[in-house]
Design a protein that fits this description.
It is built from twelve helices and eight strands. The protein is of the alpha/beta class. The protein has an eight-stranded parallel β-sheet with strand order 7-6-5-4-3-2-1-8. α2 packs across α10 and α4 packs parallel to α5. The longest helix has 18 residues. The radius of gyration is 19 Å and the shape is globular.
C-alpha cells in the first residue's frame, strides 16, 4: 500500500524559496473549468442498482466524520453525537460505525472518553478554525492542546489571505510546522476553504501545496461559508491526489465537507472517487465526508432498502 509519509524531500528544490515555489505552482496545468464541471456532472448521472446502492450506503456511513462545530456545543451534545457515531441505528447493529467525531479542541477529551474502545476516531479542528488568522505559535499551541487531549486527527485551516496574496512559502511552512507537531500522533487534514479560493487553478495549486507540505488529507471546506464541497472541486482534488501518488508514490486522502446532505449526493461523490482516483481511495482511511445531517438520510435510505418502506420522522435522532 502507498505510504502517507511526507514527500517534502522530493520537493526540496521547489520549496527552497517563494519564487521557486510560485514558479512550480503556477506551472501546473491550467484547469479547463467547462470540462471539469461537465465531467463532474456526467459522473453524477451514473445509475447505482439496489445491491451496489446498499454497499455504497454502508461505505458512506463508514466514511463520515460526524461533526458538531457550534458555539453552543456542550459536553452532553458531544456525548450524544459520540453515541450516535458508535451505534448510528440502535435498531440494527449491523450498521457501520462512522469514521470519526469532529469537535472543537475543548471538546476532545469529552469525545475521547465517550468513544473509548469503539474504534471511532476523534478529529479536532485547530489552528484558529475557521478563519485561520492567527500567529503560528498560537496555531501550534492549539494543535498541541488538541493532541494532548486525545485527538487522533487534526483538521487545520490554511491562511487564505496569505495564499491569495501569493505568499505560498508562508502557507507551506505553516502546514509543515503543524504536520511536525502532529508527528506520528495524529493525521493531518488540511482545509483550503475552496469557496474562498476563487478559481479552480487556485484549488489545484492549494492541493499540491498542501500535499507537498505533508498533509495526510486535503479537505475542501470548513462548512462555514456559502460555497463548500461541490462535485467539481472534489473531482479536481481527486485528480490532484491521483497525480501526486503517480509522481511520488505517496497516497493522500480527500475530504469534501459542507453541503452534502443526502444519500443521492453522497453516492455521486463515491462515483467520483472510483472513476477519478480509483478503488484504492474507497476506504475511510483515504476518503471522508465532513457532515452531520447526511448520516440521518443514509440511515433512512438503508432502512428503506431493508424493509421496503420509509420509517416515520422519529426513526432517526435530530442532531
Amino acid at each position: 500500500m502507498p505510504t502517507t509519509a511526507p514527500a517534502a524531500h522530493a520537493f526540496a528544490d521547489v520549496t527552497a524559496s517563494d519564487s521557486t515555489l510560485r514558479r512550480f505552482l503556477h506551472g501546473l496545468p491550467g484547469v479547463d473549468a467547462v470540462g471539469l464541471e461537465a465531467r463532474a456532472a456526467s459522473l453524477g448521472t451514473r445509475s447505482i442498482k439496489t445491491t451496489a446502492k446498499a454497499h455504497a450506503i454502508d461505505l458512506a456511513i463508514s466514511m463520515i466524520d460526524l461533526t458538531t462545530l457550534e458555539g453552543a456545543d456542550t459536553p452532553g451534545k458531544v456525548r450524544a453525537l459520540a453515541a450516535k457515531a458508535v451505534l448510528p441505528d440502535p435498531t440494527d447493529r449491523t450498521t457501520p460505525t462512522t469514521a470519526a467525531v469532529c469537535v472543537y479542541p475543548d471538546m476532545v477529551a469529552t469525545a475521547k472518553a465517550a468513544l473509548a474502545g469503539s474504534g471511532v476516531k476523534v478529529a479536532s479542528v485547530a489552528t484558529a478554525f475557521p478563519a485561520g488568522r492567527a500567529a503560528l505559535p498560537v496555531k501550534l499551541a492549539d494543535t498541541a492542546d488538541a493532541i494532548a487531549a486525545g485527538a487522533d486527527e487534526i483538521d487545520m485551516v490554511i491562511d487564505r489571505g496569505a495564499f491569495l496574496a501569493g505568499h505560498y512559502l508562508k502557507v507551506y511552512e505553516q502546514i509543515a510546522a503543524i504536520k511536525a507537531e502532529c508527528g506520528d500522533r495524529a493525521r493531518l487534514k488540511v482545509i483550503f476553504e475552496t469557496g474562498e479560493l476563487s478559481t479552480y487553478d487556485n484549488i489545484r495549486r492549494a492541493s499540491w501545496l498542501g500535499m507537498m507540505a505533508g498533509a495526510d488529507f486535503i479537505k475542501t471546506s470548513t462548512g462555514k461559508v456559502a460555497v463548500n464541497a461541490t462535485p467539481a472541486n472534489t473531482l479536481l482534488m481527486l485528480e490532484a491526489v491521483r497525480d501526486f501518488r503517480a509522481q511520488t508514490g505517496v497516497q493522500i486522502g480527500v475530504k469534501p465537507a459542507g453541503g452534502i446532505r443526502n444519500t443521492k449526493e453522497a453516492i455521486k461523490f463515491l462515483v467520483l472517487v472510483n472513476e477519478t482516483a480509483g478503488a484504492d481511495w474507497l476506504d475511510n482511511h483515504w476518503f471522508r465526508f465532513g457532515a452531520s445531517s447526511l448520516l440521518n438520510d443514509l440511515l433512512m435510505q438503508r432502512q428503506k432498502l431493508a424493509t421496503g418502506r420509509y420509517s416515520g420522522p422519529d426513526y432517526v435522532t435530530v442532531d
